[in-house]
Design a protein that fits this description.
By secondary structure, the chain is mainly beta. The protein is built from 4 helices and 23 strands. The protein has one domain (about 5-480): Beta Barrel (Porin), CATH 2.40.160.
């Protein structure tokens, strides 16, 4: 991370375009459609409250069933204006049956995550934020460790210069969340410890134009104590946004530059690793039409080098959802198509597998989280119903295929699940059926339950013993970000 602050300072000095405050829309509510919602509905929205208020599935102003439970806010109202606290607690049960598509590989356990945050508001343009986190599993099969066990770590520790809501420029320096784009740059809050970055992030905002400029290194979690990032494993980026290209739409062009000291390379020699120098050029267009039709399209092209190997990879995703407000229970149908390139030849000197970098890990491809956005073609369709203004139920179907029969099937972390270099095992990976529901008890508390079931296709049947995979979960989420204090 050396040189990052100097590089960003030079970039800021060269910037002369006046702007209003970056309002963190790109860093806080990035998701697959306009306004922060996921195409699939409420599956991921209530799971965590990223950097501010959660996106509410129903955007309802109606009262909740329960009065707000907000101990941190009540405390903050009694404290001086320069200090405030926030509190988060999440308890989740989850299990799996035939994990890794191996018969008898079963487990079920509890995950608990507690976060305590302190905000020091020195002036209306300068504040310091620190957050500690304790994440632990209970009743899980050993060995324990990240991502489920990260005891008393420093989750956040940053200083922010400039008010994102009032200033044309704001700068955040230190350990923070980056969620510019859930598909390739996010903090993946479904994990028990989530993802933090040691970073410098600058946000510019002028009229309908926004630009995020950042240099970051992902924190590598430790079982206990303060975690650190890995030196030499960095990502830099420009993430822009132009509002109202069409009515109620946003165009988001971006460029990412990822550098790693050592990655696997294609070679027949003794050297198996090399330095990565990878650029990703992408654009996302999302919006709302006809009031309740939301849509999103994203395309990414990757170029660069993995050691001596050239990178030639790409990916795209498209989704749309339509909600019928005039019908009982407000049904919302949605569909999504994803594609990411694979590597057709193992030792041709060209890396063709798309690099998903730092994505969100939950419900990118169903709630079982078995597959990643690499060497894959996936389709999804589903329906969400709202029996109550604070209650949603969703059912969805997904179908998975390999983009290249000779490349691996990859998990959400980019690791290979299984590979047939001959390509004779076919390309149909699996089908998945999910049912899940979320209920908001008040503005700070919600709970959800769901189950996902994966049925292997020809590829998994031929390369593994082909058992089905089942993943049930139950989660209770609480977040009180504290009183909103303004100087």
């Amino acid at each position: 991370m050396r040189g990052i602050i100097l590089g960003l300072s030079a970039l800021l000095t060269a910037s002369v375009v006046p702007a209003y405050a970056q309002d963190d829309v790109t860093t806080r509510n990035a998701a697959s459609v306009y306004g922060g919602a996921f195409i699939t509905g409420p599956a991921s929205n209530p799971l965590s409250f990223l950097n501010g208020d959660a996106y509410r599935t129903f955007a309802s102003s109606s009262p909740y069933l329960m009065p707000d439970f907000r101990p941190a806010s009540v405390l903050d109202e009694r404290l001086p204006d320069w200090i405030s606290f926030g509190l988060e607690e999440r308890l989740r049960y989850e299990g799996y049956h035939n994990s890794g598509f191996k018969n008898g590989n079963n487990d079920s356990y509890m995950l608990n995550r507690f976060r305590l945050q302190m905000n020091l508001l020195f002036t209306d343009w300068f504040k310091v934020v620190a957050q500690t986190q304790d994440a632990r599993p209970f009743l899980q099969k050993p060995p324990y460790g990240p991502p489920n066990e990260v005891r008393w770590d420093l989750k956040l520790a940053y200083a922010e210069f400039g008010d994102p809501e009032k200033s044309w420029i704001s700068v955040r320096v230190g350990r923070q969340l980056l969620n510019y784009n859930n598909t390739i740059m996010a903090n993946s809050e479904w994990r028990n410890q989530g993802r933090s970055y040691d970073a410098v992030a600058t946000n510019l905002h002028y009229d309908r134009y926004r630009l995020g400029i950042f240099a970051a290194s992902a924190v590598v979690p430790l079982i206990s104590g303060i975690s650190h990032h890995q030196e030499g494993n960095n990502i830099y980026g420009l993430y822009g946004a132009i509002d109202h290209v069409l009515p109620k739409s946003t165009l988001e062009p971006f460029v990412l530059w990822r550098v790693q000291l050592s990655v696997a390379i294609e070679t027949t020699g003794k050297v198996k690793t090399g330095r990565q120098d990878e650029k990703a050029y992408g654009v996302r267009f999302k919006g709302v039409a006809a009031g309740t039709l939301d849509y999103s399209y994203e395309a990414i092209l990757e170029r660069g080098l993995d050691g001596p190997n050239g990178i030639r990879a790409w990916a795209q995703t498209f989704g749309a959802g339509y909600r019928v407000n005039s019908v009982f229970w407000h049904p919302r149908a949605f569909a999504q198509y994803d594609e990411a390139s694979g590597d057709k030849t193992a030792n041709d000197g060209t890396h063709g597998t798309f690099d998903t970098m730092y994505p969100t890990a939950h419900d990118r491809f169903g709630v079982t989280d078995q597959f990643g956005w690499q060497n894959i073609v996936a389709g999804r369709a589903g329906l969400t119903l709202e029996p109550h203004r604070r209650w949603a139920v969703t059912a969805q179907y997904l179908d998975f295929w390999l983009a290249s029969a000779t490349d691996s099937l990859y998990n959400t972390s980019g690791g290979s699940i299984v590979r047939d270099t001959t390509g004779k095992s076919g390309t149909h990976v699996a089908e998945e059926f999910d049912v899940y529901t979320w209920f908001e008890l008040d503005s700070h508390l919600n709970f959800g339950v769901g189950v996902g079931h994966v049925m292997p296709g020809a590829f998994l049947a031929n390369t593994t013993k082909g058992p089905t995979y089942t993943y049930p979960y139950f989660a209770i989420n609480f977040k009180d970000a504290g009183a909103d204090k303004q100087h």
